[in-house]
Amino acid sequence: MLSRVAERLYWTSRYLERVENTARLMGVYTNLLLDMPSGVNIGWYNLVTLNNAEAWFENRYKVKDERNVMRFLLSDPDYPGSMMSSLQGVRENIRTTRDVVPAESWEYINELTLYVQDNLNMGINRGQRHAFIAEVIKACQQFLGLFVGSMNEGRGRSFLRLGRNLERADMTTRILDAGINLVLENNGNVLPTTESIIWVNVLQSLSAYLPYTKQQRKTVRGSRVARYLLEDPDLPRTVRYCCDLLRRECAGLPRSGPVLAHIDSILASHYGPLDDEDRPLDQGFSDYLNHLQLQIAGLHHLFAEAWFTLD
Amino acid sequence: MTIDWKTYDPGSFYDEIISSPGNARMPARRLVSYLGSLGDDDVQARRASADVAIKQMGVTFTVYSEEGNIDRSWPFDIIPRTVSRRQWEKTAAGLEQRLRALNLFIDDLYHDQKIVKDGVFPRYILDESKNFRPECVGVSPRFGVWAHICGTDLVRDKDGQFYVLEDNLRVPSGVSYMLENRAITKRVLPDLFDTEQILPIDDYPANLLEALTSLSPRRVNRPSIVVLTPGIYNSAYFEHAFLAQQMGAELVEGSDLVVADDCVYMKTVDGLERVDVIYRRIDDLFLDPEVFNPESVLGVPGVMRAWKKGNVALANAPGAGVADDKVVYAFVPRIIKYYLGEEPLIPNVETFLCVNDKERDYVLANLDKLVVKPANESGGAGMLVGPHSTKKEQKRFAELIRAHPRNYIAQPTLALSTVPTLVDGGGVEPRHVDLRPFIIQAKKSWVTTGGLTRVAMKRGSLVVNSSQGGGSKDTWIVDTGGN
Fold first, then answer.
1. Which whole number is the average pLDDT over B77-94?
2. What is the ipTM metric for this complex?
3. Rounded to the nearest 10 degrees, what angle do helices B40-57 and B175-188 cross at?
4. Cβ separation of A98 and B253 shorter than 8 Å?
């Protein structure tokens, strides 16, 4: 497989995952809003800060309200993480790898891009947002099904998996961060039930609520949720699961030594205070998550050195 | 309001579907009665569903403009054009004949130049050719074939006879649109494919692959074949990706390839991998910065060395464009006779070379009736269409012709044939069309079943180029039975 093609496949699935994750993130906050008792503050702007997108946002908007944040996350042309930018990214990458991806991919991405373009207001206005988000997530899942169901095992599939799981691990840390920030923001006013509503929503946004209840059989509490989403080996969106999968995938590729060492260091990382289930999560945990994000981002550079630039 | 074929009037032009008011030509009979049976709403619904299919299939071409490059959806008319199988088979034989002769001609020019020595082809044309590549002299590509893929533009005049308008031997494009047009039509008019004997066209990628495979310098079981594209900003990028995908070839850009020990390799995740055949879709002059344009970042340094040593095949071969020239065009009937000893099966359009005094005088006296074309441009730019021109334009062209007579040719204005086409606001009107079939030659030669029909969407217009408002139609070669 051409190095350039490998890189584009990798970005195809990263961007695609980013589209889905943006939808999921919007979903968490929107659901929370409906669940929370009045008087509890929902910081929509958190969605911007936890993506480190403040500079782009402030370039365009003054008021940090729900509408602006939603419009920004969905359609800002300059912010590379917005849903439209990510879709353009998927489209350009599929367009330039059409000879290796299933023929339907091109139709699917055109359909999804047109859908989002034509229905931005559904996402911006609260009334139809749920349907919009559900449709976007469904379309992203459709891609995965297409790839799994019709692409040969081989290098192409490997690089799609690399991109997807790196992006997933990253987003799981960000969604956890979104949860902890909401808790901290309402520090003091948050009733224990409200806090558990936040964590239930965090789990649901990652399709992890039912697996959690089955596996843990304990009430939902911040430290347990955090540990579960970071370290569970079986749930497809935990950091541990993604890293295990990255490790297996990379072990089958040439020149993977430095990549494997780096993945091992992420797998070995652990936030000690989580061992005490009764201890409330604090700013220290948020800092830990940021550190983890940097480590995950570091993987990308190692991928590029090993496989994408061949000089 | 349903389509009323009795009021459809192509005037004095040859219409390919309707022979006289209300009467369809043989291969179009079922099509015409079927369309006539549809209600207006149904016609519009099918037109809309074609638009949706085009958007979803992402069939686009790129338009260059001041505001940057825009990907436009492919303009498509749902009414197909029909040609009888019998007529097509004669035409296809003529196209094969033409390409065989042209390849003999190119090979001769890069070796002994017998045709020049024998006085059949004037030396001055060769000396002034923009597309003759001295770097290619003495090279002997496999099977003596230089132009492996040729797109020849055909038109039909008042009499319904096919004429060759030009041969595109460099990097002809359009074949993917031909295939996509059929895919769209199958979605929009599925009923007709049950009852009509419409010959299939989707074997093009397989035939192209077979031809490219036969060029491989290494006798290996599965030679490594790549499609070399200038990248996504090229107007035909869609097609490059399409063909690579259909053939199972790698789609590469220049920076993916590297030459070492006079062999070509591609950069893969697993290291360097040898390349046997390059179907290149970039122009000669950008192919190898070592030999041609040193500024080119699209090409591959050293690829010409590898080609000359016979370590890689290039399709089309560099230098094949020498026969793709509107002055050379005028000589093709003589070229066919010279190399094959045969009469041309498809005639040329009568062509006046402005370099010859008598012909130039005729051209200058008849600028209002003729079409004047520069000898070396493509895409319909820089043309004078006499009957549609102003006195001022004619004067400007007269000056250009006097200053550079060798750069211009002229042809009579053809009464291009028409095909019924849906127009905005409903209803059907005649629009002018041309046809670009594709001919492949390597170990064997082969012609597409039909080709890409381009249609001038504006009333009375003769300009079919997609970059200038032209559209396209599916082309049906219909088996009407009998011989």
1. 96
2. 0.72
3. 140
4. no
